[in-house]
User: Fold this.
Amino acid sequence: MKNDYIIELKNVCKYYKLGDTEIKALCDVNLQIKRGDFLAIVGPSGSGKSTMMNLVGALDISSRGDIFLDGQNIEHLPESDLAQIRGKKIGFVFQTFNLIPTLNAIENIALPMIFHGVGKKERMERAEKILKEVSLTHRREHLPKQLSGGERQRIAIGRALANDPEVILADEPTGNLDSKTGMEIIKLFVDLNKKGKTIILVTHNLDLIKYAQKVLKIADGKIIEHRKIKQQKVK
Amino acid sequence: MKDHFFLAFSNLRRRGLRSWLTMIGIFIGIAAVVGLISLGQGLQGAINEQFEQLGKDKIIIQSKTIGPPGSATSEKLILTTKDLEAIKNVRGVESVVGMLMKTSFLKFKDESKITFAIGINPEDISIFSEMQNFKVIDGRNLKKGDGFKAIVGYNNAVDEKIWKKAVEVGSTIEIEGVEFKVVGILGKTGDPYNDAGIYVPKETLREVLNVNDEESEIIAKTQSGFNPSDVADAIIRKLRQERDEKKDQETFNVQTSEQLLTTFTNIFGIVQAVLVGIAAISLVVGGIGIMNTMYTSVLERTKEIGTMKAVGAKNSDILQIFLFESGLLGLVGGTIGVALGIGLGKSVEFIAATALGTNLLRASISFPLIFGALTFSFLIGTLSGVLPAMQASKLKPVDALRYE
Ligand SMILES: Nc1ncnc2c1ncn2[C@@H]1O[C@H](COP(=O)(O)OP(=O)(O)OP(=O)(O)O)[C@@H](O)[C@H]1O
Ligand SMILES: [Mg+2]
Assistant:
């Protein structure tokens, strides 16, 4: 039986130790995210947005509290299990794209499948399909440096889709793109959300919030608002 | 596995020049090791052949001196015709050949040289020829009754090899001012000493050089049915008695051809081990070079490592990728090194053959040598990569992703 909530945070805190001082990046955060939600996270710089994304994405471990991903508590698992969860259940999209410079477009998309043990034939077929979904079939063999910013981000989104995860975590994916290209990326997210993916999007661009279904505001490591909004269609 | 290899390979390709520079250390080392070992093995093979030629049934008796035979000067040290006669009477000895080798003043046409003249009894020439693999290719051999006659090694009969003008049958060579007529030319044996030799009747050489009864080297042949080392022991006992010497204080040296080969092989093995050891130092340096490159690479690619972990790479995946990468650096370096090493060995062989006229120095390239060198270079690369790869694999995903 599947849990209604794909992500649950219970009393989560995250402290960073810097010498003698302790920075409280997140304090007693409680949050539930439904399967298939499109959530936009906003908040001032340094408020803890990335910290929360890293915890949810199993890239880091909380200082206190529990995080459930698809009903499984991920706070007490060994690194090898976390790696597997990251590879299978989560797709990351970064502000700086983070493509592997030595691999071409299709190889970058196929990369997560290598670590997931997918055979070469199946890998390439699937990568080809994803390449089509992000409309970059004509850039198949191009290296990241031969692609525009928007194209790079689309490849990165393609890579996030490789193992068909339920959740896409995107931390300021449009931060390095102009507004028009940014809109194309948002449109991709909206489409993916329609196909059932849970999308969590961190953004500074308040114009983009309206395309999400819910908004979460964070300040000083605390949630100050979490509400439904009227989702606008992308033109 | 294969995919990790692919990831490692694509990284090496990207770093192009730096990868090549890193490999230099390995390929110089491997080239030196492969070159030295191939030449060593070739030389050993050639020496084994020479001994085969000489035959297992031969016993070589020399005076105990440092330096080439014939360099003993003290009266007490030299072997004499009396010793030779004594050896003839030892049980199990079939025949005995004594040689007189002396550096002398030689002259051909207008050219003078100080070099070896070798005296042999014409009666012994057939057994001597068999031992040294001598074949007369022009003229005739020395024969009983010959006086001021000579046969010469092959290189004497080639222009510009030893003499400016080639020695021919009928030429005259002067030894210490006395003329000898060349009656025969010997075929090439490949041994530069033999091929440069000038052989004359021993008694005539004694008269010319004014040496009485010295024998520079005596070779005894064992009768079939006797064990050469037993016969050698009997010769030692006989000579000790004859020369009135105490055990372990002998002034002479008796060795069967097999013992001689063993002695030689041992010395040769040590020399080669030292040389290869020195060459191996450069492999260590090469390994450190790889380690350095890999550490740099881990730093440069910290963010990439973070990304790979974010998309599901386990620590063991990262470890494998980096180990493959350093192993590949070693292996490619080793492959080039092996090719260079073979080239090096073959060039030395070629130079030795053309400039020195010897076919003793030849490069023997065997499959185990190549395979061993490649495995070894891959291992060096992999080992050098262990620490950097472990560092890479242990990076925490968030920290790696945040790295600028
Ligand atoms: N690895 C770290 N070590 C120490 N402090 C950290 C670390 N990561 C984050 N912080 C601190 O935690 C706080 C929250 O940082 P976080 O990166 O989550 O902010 P953010 O909301 O993503 O900001 P921005 O919008 O600028 O990206 C900040 O004060 C930051 O300085
Ligand atoms: Mg941030």
Remarks:
- Residues 179-194 of chain A form the longest helix (16 residues).
- The longest strand of chain A covers residues 5-18.
- Chain A has one domain: 37-59+82-228.
